[in-house]
């Protein structure tokens, strides 16, 4: 599914779907009630409920903190959920559906700073997860995936401050651990090749091999060149 993008310096608010079958075609989903036009928002897919979740993002006029869901079996009906006591307005953050909840991390704030917080939306309410010990630095442009074998949230990369401050670190978050030890950065062998710092890359989790795959991304160069053409596979010990 694709929802909103830049096109001729304008923000879009369309939603299209492409069934991945032998003979595929795009369909534009129409709805009278829907999220405002935006970009830099975060989205996640709930497989069990067949729902698309969208949060935040920005337009030329505002940075959003709204939360929307679309049930694909409802004929294109969007529903806006309450954001009371939830994340502040932000863009360029990471989101993933894991377990029975929506998880959000980081992003750029309305004031132009970078966020470090982690949020969980479940049963109609937001919960902010805090940690008194080590945790990822504030960032945006990073990727997040959910390991449904071990029930872990993984984040990688992103940037803080400017594109000269790119991250290459990998973190896991265990919701079942205490707040003081939920975040963990696994040891990575420095004598082996590993991805360099990057943002706006793609990531996926392969449960059969318990490995994280990432591809491409932005390396901070003036001309926005892609960081390599290959993919990286990381096997992690949880």
UniProtKB/TrEMBL annotation:
Name recorded for this polypeptide: Galactose oxidase
InterPro entries listed in its UniProt record: Kelch-typ_b-propeller (IPR015915)
Transmembrane region(s): none
Keywords: Kelch repeat, Repeat, Signal
Superkingdom of the source species: Eukaryota
Signal sequence segment: 1-23
One Pfam family hit: Kelch_KLHDC2_KLHL20_DRC7
PANTHER family given in the database record: ACYL-COA-BINDING DOMAIN-CONTAINING PROTEIN 5, FIBRONECTIN TYPE-III DOMAIN-CONTAINING PROTEIN
Organism: Durusdinium trenchii
């Amino acid at each position: 599914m694709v929802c909103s993008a830049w096109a001729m310096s304008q923000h879009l608010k369309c939603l299209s779907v492409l069934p991945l079958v032998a003979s595929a075609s795009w369909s534009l989903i129409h709805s009278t009630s829907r999220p405002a036009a935006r970009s830099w928002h975060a989205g996640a897919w709930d497989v069990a409920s067949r729902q698309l979740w969208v949060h935040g993002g920005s337009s030329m006029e505002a940075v959003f903190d709204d939360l929307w869901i679309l049930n694909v079996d409802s004929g294109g009906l969007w529903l806006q959920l309450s954001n009371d006591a939830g994340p502040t307005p932000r863009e360029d953050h990471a989101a993933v559906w894991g377990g029975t909840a929506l998880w959000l991390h980081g992003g750029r704030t309305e004031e132009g700073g970078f966020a470090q917080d982690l949020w969980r939306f479940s049963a109609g309410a937001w919960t902010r997860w805090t940690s008194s010990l080590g945790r990822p630095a504030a960032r945006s442009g990073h990727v997040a995936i959910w390991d449904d074998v071990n029930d872990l949230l993984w984040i990688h990369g992103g940037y803080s401050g400017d594109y000269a401050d790119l991250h290459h670190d990998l973190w896991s978050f265990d919701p079942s651990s205490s707040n003081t030890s939920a975040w963990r950065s696994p040891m990575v062998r420095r004598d082996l090749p590993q991805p360099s710092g990057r943002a706006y890359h793609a990531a996926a989790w392969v449960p059969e091999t318990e490995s994280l795959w990432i591809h491409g991304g932005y390396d901070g160069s003036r001309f926005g060149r892609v960081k390599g053409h290959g993919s990286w596979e990381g096997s992690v010990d949880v």
